[in-house]
Amino acid sequence: NDPATDLRGTGLLGLLHLLYFILDSSTAATAKKVYQISQDEIQNFPFCLMSISMTRIALEVLREELLNKECNQRNQVMLVVNEFYAGTFFHLYQTWKKYHKTIIDTGYVIKAVTDYVKKNVKTVIQSMKEFQDQEETKSGVMALHING
Length: 148
Prior knowledge:
The chain has 148 residues and is mainly α. It has helices at 3-6, 12-23, 28-38, 47-63, 68-74, 78-98, 106-119, 121-147. Helices cover 76% and strands 0% of the residues.
């Protein structure tokens, strides 16, 4: 009933991450896939609340200084945190879809995702980029077929 209570743990960043995920051209296609599974008759989950959980994980990883190396190498903080958030949400999506998870599994999945992303920061970011590159390639091939 009160969206402000959902943002307590992440503040405005929780809302900004959600907007980044659905509106940024680099993540919108992934967000659409995540949203589609969140609306599945069996595998559904609350998309916005799950996004806030992914922001909470990203903040936790940032506070534990696990993103420092990546931030320092790229001389960026917000971009790295945003990409890590999106990669974390993507990892959740892959897990949810592959193992046919349902709302009942939420706590276990979030715990497993948290444990994985903390140990694989660079992989989480890289996997998301690789998926985005594959999606762009598919779109380009489809455009060639349609226009060709």
